[in-house]
Amino acid sequence: MSTPFYVSPQQAMADRAEYARKGIARGRSLVVLQYADGIVFVGENPSRALHKFSEIYDRIGFAAAGKYNEYENLRIGGVRYADLRGYTYDRDDVTARGLANVYAQTLGTIFSSAAEKPYEVELVVAEVGETPEGDQIYRLPHDGSIVDEHGSVAVGGNAETISSYLDQRHQDGMSLAEALKLAVQALSRDTNGSEREIPAERLEVAVLDRTRPQKRKFKRIVGRQLGRLLEVGGASTEAESSDDADGSEEK
After folding, report:
1. What was the pLDDT predicted at 7?
2. Which residue among 7, 76, 105, 125 has its CA within the 20 to 30 Å range from the CA of 52?
3. Beta-carbon neighbour count of residue 207 at 10 Å?
4. DSSP readout, 128-166?
5. CB count in 10 Å sphere of residue 76
6. 211 and 37 in contact (C-beta within 8 Å)?
7. Within a 13 Å sphere around the CA of 102, how many CA atoms are in the beta-carbon half?
8. DSSP designation for 199
9. What is the pLDDT of residues 62-79, one digit of tens each?
10. Which class for 57: exposed (0-12), middle (13-18), buried (19 or more C-beta within 10 A)?
11. Distances, alpha carbon 210 to alpha carbons 36, 218, 219, in Å
């Protein structure tokens, strides 16, 4: 009778974490940023049928990187949780924090279970408040931990490089066009430092807009509206560069 092969629990968890990280890294990155009137979701997505961003409830949005079938199951579960809680209690009782806790328990249970492989997904749950100070953004890695983010967050394949770029340039009170332009610039950067162009038709963009009069704040930005915002953001960036150049000449 042969002796069973032994793997320490620490090594088994490390192997599962590495497996999940490699799966997530194969997916395209996405970013979530705060701007003056809400929260914007931006990602490179050539598919018009398989969305990375979705509405969960009135003020809550969902973003995910990784395997589509796995994070779609989580999205559907989140919608069911939100609908049931809002119907049973009150719509105000459905919060991003509560939803993030539910996702954390689910991901943590799957990650620690030896009976199934870990999910190759990384989630972002965001809720827009009445004011910018009330905005909430939570990042949930594959292991079920919760990270409370502020200002901007990136997940997916090139997240470290993009996060570093955003941390240096994101500012409070940015307009939607400015935030969108910054997000596209960040997504265009490769790990080797080079840049590439991402056409508008390959972008998926959505917002949680606190200024919308209806209860549901989630809205997708497509077509001409997206094109106009990209043009406005580009024009404002060029104007700022021109102002900086004039100031340096005066000195």
Report:
1. 72
2. 105
3. 24
4. --SSGGG-EEEEE-TTS--EEE-SEEEESTTHHHHHHHH
5. 11
6. yes
7. 17
8. -
9. 999 999 999 999 999 999
10. buried
11. 9, 9, 11
